[in-house]
Amino acid sequence: MFIAPFLYLAIWYHSWLGLGLVILWTIVNPFIFPKPKKKENWFTYVVLGEKLWLENFGKKPRLDLPLILNIITAASFIPSIYFAYVNMFWLTLYLGTLMNISKLWYADRVALQYGKLSSTRA
Q1: pLDDT tens digits for 41-67?
Q2: Which residues neighbour 1 within 8 Å (Cβ) at sequence distance 6 or greater?
Q3: pLDDT of res. 122
Q4: Phi, psi (5° rounding) for residue 19?
């Protein structure tokens, strides 16, 4: 989730090595860290909530807050990569910040939905 600043730096400095390391870390990261022993922490709720949201979205797509936040994340991430490439600092910073805020808000929403669902099942 927080790989974007390193991605921006690699693109800003046109570093193929840096970009390769960011991509490698993105691929290797899930295999390095084991599954959590406890499921009562926020980030585990985010992962499980996202899986649940994707399952429900696949069955019946609808326009809800998590979808809107994902659209904002994608719409700000794509141009921010371009602006990092052409070294436009303020636009990269603004769009990168917007992307991170919308992604964190999305994570909060799906974690909250999962927490509500898991508390009703218990």
Answers
A1: 888 899 899 999 999 888 888 899 999
A2: 103, 107
A3: 58
A4: -65, -40
Backbone angles phi, psi at 42, to 5 degrees: -60, -45
Spatial contact of 95 and 51, defined as CB atoms under 8 Å apart: no
Per-domain boundaries in the chain: 37-121
Q: Tokens for 71, please give them.
A: 């659209």
Look up tokens 């022993």; give the residue.
Answer: 37
Residue keyed to tokens 């996202």? 50
CA distance 53 to 73: 16
Helix 4-12 / helix 89-121 crossing angle, nearest 10 deg: 160
Element (H, E) at 60: none
The answer on pLDDT for 26 being more than 70 is yes
| CB-CB neighbours of 1 under 10 Å | 10
